[in-house]
Amino acid sequence: MGKGFNLGQMFDAGQHPPTLEAARGKIDAYYDRGFRVVRIPVTWTEVVDGGTLADPDTGAIDRDAERLAALTAVIDYALAKPGLYVVINAHHETRLKDGMRADVLERLWSDIASLYRDRDHRLVFEILNEPHFSNHDAMPADRLREMTGRAYRRIRANDPERVILIGGNQWFGADEMAKTWPDLEEVGGGRDPYLMATFHHYNPWTFNGDNQGDYADPWTEADIHGPMQVMAEWAGSTGQGMPVFIGEWGVGWHSRLAAMDCNNIRLWYARFNAHHAAPLGMPTAVWDDGGWFQLYDHEKEAFSSNLIDCIDGQCRWTGSDRFNADCA
């Protein structure tokens, strides 16, 4: 799978139009730069762009929804590109998470699996993104395992070889995995070769997060490598060799900076994938929402800085100081 990107704030929230027309340029631009994974966050049971994709009380998909037709068009457009993997999930499902509605999640994934049953196996299913409550508390691990297991079995009834992603029980932090999944009994009992673990990497949040401090944070290589190593250890033990996907990572620079010209941020992007994730065999999807975590500018239909270059391991700096003036 290698390096990838997120089609953020399009089908999960209302920042960008949820259309193939709006997505095509971004998909093409990343693909032309060698990216071979697109993660499409999708909100099904909450209102986006004036409507829902699925009934919030039952999880049944509205197959006549215009946004569903657009989502399918984007999925098919991406899958038509040789070697491009597509990850779809259940993203901002607030009521579903707060109510721990296993029945809704089960029906939702039954319908999704049926709807996309004939798609290439480069289409990957991520069952439930960051399953915290609306007060930000973690979901009880045992309840999440039950919910995930019920959805997993519905997917497997449709397709025994579709890759399924599982993660932690709050923010998809690396340290959540061992607490959430002390065993794999709910997801095939360790006998399913088409399972993949996922986590999100914004460590340290004081540097990576939106609306934090300045960007002169003296982060270290251990800040990048540490969570990856935690996941690698879980995958090599409880996960029985399960592959690991870093579904989100990045820096929310545009929440505080009008333009990106901070070498410390460039260094983070240069070190993250090429020097840490790739050597560990962990594919990645940089979080790009076209806003705070912007790489691609939707209005200009172009990358807005050279962070896209940095992901390959090196890129042009302004001067030679890691903490140059634009980091403050």
What would you say about this model in short?
By secondary structure, this protein is of the alpha/beta class.
How far apart are the termini? 36 Å
CATH top level class name: Alpha Beta
Q: List segments where confidence is low: pLDDT < 50 over at least 5 consecutive residues.
A: none
> What is the average of the pLDDT values?
97
- Largest β sheet strand count, sense and barrel closure: 8 strands, parallel
Helix content: 25-40%
Number of domains: 1
Q: H/E series, N to C? A: EHEHEHHEHEHEHHEHEEEH
Description:
With 328 residues, the chain is of the alpha/beta class. It has one domain: Glycosidases (TIM Barrel, Alpha-Beta Barrel). 33% of the residues lie in helices and 12% in strands. It has ten helices and ten strands. It has helices at residues 20-32, 66-79, 94-98, 102-115, 141-158, 176-180, 205-208, 221-236, 263-277, 307-310, and strands spanning 3-6, 37-40, 85-89, 123-126, 164-166, 195-201, 244-249, 284-286, 296-297, 302-303. It has an eight-stranded parallel β-sheet with strand order 7-6-5-4-3-2-1-8, with helices on one face. The protein has a two-stranded antiparallel sheet with strand order 9-10. Helix 8 packs parallel to helix 9 (263-277). The longest helix has 18 residues, at 141-158. It starts with a strand and ends in an 18-residue tail after the last helix.
